[in-house]
From TrEMBL:
Residues 9-306 form the Enoyl reductase (ER) domain. This is Alcohol dehydrogenase. Gene3D superfamilies: Medium-chain alcohol dehydrogenases, catalytic domain, NAD(P)-binding Rossmann-like Domain. Pfam families: ADH_N, ADH_zinc_N_2. It comes from the Bacteria. It comes from Streptomyces eurocidicus. Transmembrane segments: none annotated. InterPro entries: ADH-like_N, ER, GroES-like_sf, NAD(P)-bd_dom_sf, Zn-ADH-like_protein. GO terms for molecular function: acryloyl-CoA reductase (NADPH) activity.
C-alpha cells in the first residue's frame, strides 16, 4: 500500500512510499482510508520521535474494507471514522472496533476525519466538567481544532461560552459564529468566575484559568501548546473565600471507554452541519510537508486535512 513514511532526509520528515499492508487482529477491521486530519501533537512530538519507515497518524475517515473477524464493529462497505495510535497516513489501516464510528452516507470524509482527536477530546473534556446547562465555561486556545469543537459543543450543551484567544480582533467573529458568547484575550481578561474550564494551552494560562474557578468548578487540562510548566503561586490552592472543592483533572483519550459511540455521534453532527470543524488547510499527499510546516509554525487556526486518493 502507499503511505506517508517517516524519513528525516525528506521535507518535513515525510515521504510518499510503499509499506506492507496491515494485518488486522480478530477485533480489528481493515479500513480503506480516504482522508486524514493532522494534529499538532503528532507532528510536533510523534514525528520527531518515530523511526524512519514508520507510518503515523491518529485520525482517519474511510470505508470498511474487511470487517473484524470476531464479528464486532461495522460491516464491509460501511463509511467510518477511526481513531488509532498510528497508521492513519496510509491507504489501509487496521483499527480496533471500539475505536470506529459509523458515518452517514455521503458525508465529506475530510470534515469527518477531524472528529477523533479534536472532537472526541473536546466532548470528553466537557463530560469531565459535568453538567453545563446554564453554566459559565471558559475554553482557552479556542482557535485550534479541539478548541473550536469545545466552543461549539459547550454552546450546544446550553453553556455560556467564553472563548480565549491570543487575537480576539482577528478571530472574534469566527469564534462567535462557532457559539462563543464572549471572546477574550486570555483568562486574565475574564471578569467573573467560571464553573468550568477546558484548557488547550497549559502553562501560565492554566494557572490563571484555575484562579477563575468558582466553588465546585473543574478545569480539564487537554492541551499543552505553551510548552511550559505550571507554577502556582502560594495561596492559589487555598479553598477559602468561595474556592471550596475546585478540581484540575486530566484524561487520556485512548484510555476512555465508549469511544465508538462518541465518534458516531460527532460524525453525524458534523455531517448534519451542527458542528463545523473549521478546516484551515486541505490538500493531497503531495502537500503533507506544507501542512506539517504550517502546523508547526502555528499558522493554522483549525484543522489540516489530507485527502488520500
Amino acid at each position: 500500500m502507499r503511505a506517508l513514511l517517516v524519513d528525516r532526509s525528506a521535507p518535513a520528515g515525510l515521504r510518499l512510499g510503499q509499506a506492507p499492508d496491515p494485518e488486522p487482529a480478530p477485533n480489528q477491521a481493515l479500513i480503506r482510508v480516504t482522508a486524514t486530519s493532522l494534529n499538532y501533537g503528532e507532528v510536533r512530538f510523534m514525528l520527531q520521535e518515530a523511526p524512519d519507515g514508520a507510518v503515523l497518524g491518529w485520525d482517519a475517515a474511510g470505508v470498511v474494507e474487511r470487517a473484524a473477524a470476531d464479528g464486532s464493529g461495522p460491516a464491509a462497505g460501511t463509511p467510518v471514522v477511526t481513531l488509532g495510535v498510528a497508521g492513519a497516513w496510509a491507504e489501509l489501516r487496521a483499527v480496533d472496533t471500539d475505536w470506529i464510528g459509523t458515518v452517514p452516507a455521503g458525508a465529506d470524509p475530510g470534515a469527518v476525519s477531524t472528529v477523533p482527536v479534536a472532537g472526541a477530546s473536546a466532548l470528553r473534556a466537557l463530560h469531565r466538567v459535568g453538567p453545563i446547562l446554564g453554566r459559565r465555561i471558559l475554553v482557552t486556545g479556542a482557535t485550534g481544532g479541539a478548541g473550536r469543537y469545545a466552543v461549539r459543543l459547550a454552546r450546544l450543551g446550553g453553556a455560556h461560552v467564553i472563548a480565549s484567544t491570543g487575537d480576539p480582533d482577528k478571530h472574534g467573529d469566527s469564534l462567535r459564529a462557532a457559539g462563543a458568547h464572549e471572546v477574550v484575550a486570555g483568562p486574565q481578561a475574564v471578569g467573573e468566575p467560571v464553573d468550568g474550564v477546558v484548557d488547550m494551552v497549559g502553562g501560565q494560562q492554566l494557572v490563571d484559568a484555575y484562579g477563575l474557578l468558582a466553588q465546585g468548578g473543574t478545569l480539564v487540562a487537554v492541551g499543552h501548546s505553551a510548552h511550559q510548566g505550571e507554577n502556582f503561586p502560594f495561596g492559589a490552592l487555598f479553598a477559602d473565600n468561595g474556592r471550596h472543592d475546585r478540581s484540575i483533572v486530566t484524561f487520556s483519550l485512548p484510555e476512555c471507554s465508549g469511544l465508538a459511540s462518541d465518534l458516531t455521534w460527532l460524525a453525524h453532527r458534523v455531517a448534519a452541519g451542527e458542528l463545523e470543524p473549521q478546516i484551515s488547510w486541505r490538500g493531497g499527499w503531495g502537500g503533507a510537508a506544507e501542512a506539517v510546516d504550517a502546523l508547526l509554525q502555528r499558522r493554522l487556526h483549525g484543522k489540516a486535512i489530507l485527502d488520500i486518493a
